[in-house]
Amino acid sequence: MLSITVILCTYNRHESLATALESVAASQLADSTEWEVLVVDNNSKDQTRAVIEKFCEKFPRRFRYLFEPKPGKSHALSTGIREARGSVLAFVDDDVVVDRTWLQNLTAPFQSPTWVGVGGRILPERNFTPPAWLNVDAPYALAPLAVFDLGTKSRPLDEPPFGTNMAFRKEVFAKYGGFRTDLGPRPGNEIRNEDTEFGRRLLAAGEHLFYEPSAIVYHSVPQNRVRKEYFLDWWFDKARADIREFGIPPATRWSVKGIPLYVFRRLAVWTVRWMIALNSGARFGRKLKVYGLLGLASECYRQSATIRVNRKDNAKA
């Protein structure tokens, strides 16, 4: 019999947190299933603690409150993993609504020893309409809104799931380590990828992940995210996160301050394509390419500068 811990990390979102916790509390599982919800307060300054404590009082055997003072989602996740009692850990965010059968469906594949991780389907809130300037047919077009939708058919995963709807056997964290602290959002820094990097780590090690589309969460889409500026910033930071995860592209003969010359060529090409595009969706899609390349160049420069400083310090030592 599986035991389950739901880990929800939160920071200064007490209003959406209450909605998320209500939906999790309404989860339908077999009476024999042992499950708990750990809510990790990542040093919030609003009414977060009061909201969580109300649920702990209402469901004393179900909800637990944890406080993690060190800023950064990865630190909060590590606290939740360390304190979890379940053999399966399910992860969800503070700005979603889960289906009543979400947790049951997400964890059901673990009845087979084949799977060490499961990803569910993440859809935008039900009343969401994509803006006209966004080409939703492009790959991962809605990724900045945390949408993860690979269709309605269950199957093995060959890519990592997204963090607001995934579950893993607790033992894999002991075997492969936790979420990287240089990735994951924290105050003043929106670089992410802590979730997908962990999933890729498991896949690279030969572990098997599963996609279960009947495990559905609906992600909120606040108006401040349905803006071009938000999408541009997200792809800029995504490119920076990719460099942190995979490293600076292999050194070539031609580079400037650690930035491979081909990046400048691609920037020029995509800037021209952006400027001459007539269709609004295509035009913005090409602008996103430009911002991604700018993010890549920015992180290559930062990383190479750090390497140069470390080399100088080691030479002086």
Distance between the termini: 56 Å
What is the arithmetic mean of pLDDT?
94
Largest sheet: 9 strands, mixed
Helix fraction bin = 40-55%
Stated plainly, the CATH topology of the largest domain is called Spore Coat Polysaccharide Biosynthesis Protein SpsA, Chain A
Question: What proportion strand?
Answer: 15-25%
CATH top level of the largest domain is Alpha Beta
- Structural class of the helices, strands and pairings? alpha/beta
CATH superfamily of the largest domain: Spore Coat Polysaccharide Biosynthesis Protein SpsA, Chain A
Structural domain tally: 2
Helix segment tally:
9
What's the overall geometry? Answer: globular
Outline the fold blueprint:
Layout: E1 3-10, H1 14-25, E2 34-41, H2 48-58, E3 63-67, H3 73-83, E4 88-92, E5 96-98, H4 102-107, E6 117-124, E7 155-157, E8 166-169, H5 171-176, H6 194-204, E9 209-219, H7 228-246, E10 255-256, E11 259-260, H8 261-276, H9 280-316
Parallel strand pairs: 1-2, 1-4, 2-3, 6-9
Antiparallel strand pairs: 4-8, 5-9, 6-8, 7-9, 10-11
Helix pairs in contact: 1-2, 7-9, 8-9
Could you characterize the architecture of this molecule?
- The protein is α/β, with parallel strands linked by helices and 317 residues long.
- The protein has two domains: 3-225, Spore Coat Polysaccharide Biosynthesis Protein SpsA, Chain A; 236-316.
- Helices cover 41% and strands 19% of the residues.
- The strands form two sheets. Strands 1, 2, 3, 4, 5, 6, 7, 8 and 9 form a nine-stranded mixed sheet that branches. It has a two-stranded antiparallel ribbon with strand order 10-11.
- Strand 10 and strand 11 (259-260) form a beta hairpin.
- Helix 7 runs parallel beside helix 9 and helix 8 runs antiparallel to helix 9 (280-316).
- The longest helix is centred in the last third of the chain and has 37 residues, at 280-316.
- The model has no long low-confidence stretch (mean pLDDT 94).
